[in-house]
Amino acid sequence: MQRSRADLLTAAEVMNPEVVTLSPDTPVIDAVSKLLQHGFSGAPVVAEDGTLVGIFSENDSLQALASAAFYVAPTGTVGEHMSRTVQTVGPDADLLRLTYLLHECRIRRLPVVADGRLVGLITRRDVLRALDRVRREREKELQRPPRKSKVEEIEARRGRPPA
Fold this sequence. Notes:
Blueprint: H1 11-14, H2 28-38, E1 42-46, E2 52-57, H3 58-67, H4 78-81, H5 95-104, E3 109-114, E4 117-123, H6 124-143, H7 150-158
Antiparallel strand pairs: 1-2, 3-4
Helix pairs in contact: 5-6
């Protein structure tokens, strides 16, 4: 049985609600260390009230480090180097939308935002896991014998062959 669009997993079901974030005031060197420590390619930047204000990525890190190539450490804060234009989704975005945005926008992460506040984060890997789960569920459904109709069930109980 094929899933309908309404049956698809949503961002709220796929996202990680425990998000490592950065503050706009975080020094670049500390942000780079945090990304490396956690093995992340980027992190959302949030204001004190939880409002998403940007993304600080490996690319932003590279630019900051390259601009400080003649210095011992990069200068500035995350707020000075982060990407301010951020593709986001709401908690109700479905799996097809998530897949489309990650692929077409060539991004690695999608912040999930509700009322302007960060509520979770979805990475490419999260979407791959969800797509694989849907594929496995579909395989199981295809391996099940077809369900009998109500008429066939009643006839079988009465001992009559199906018509």
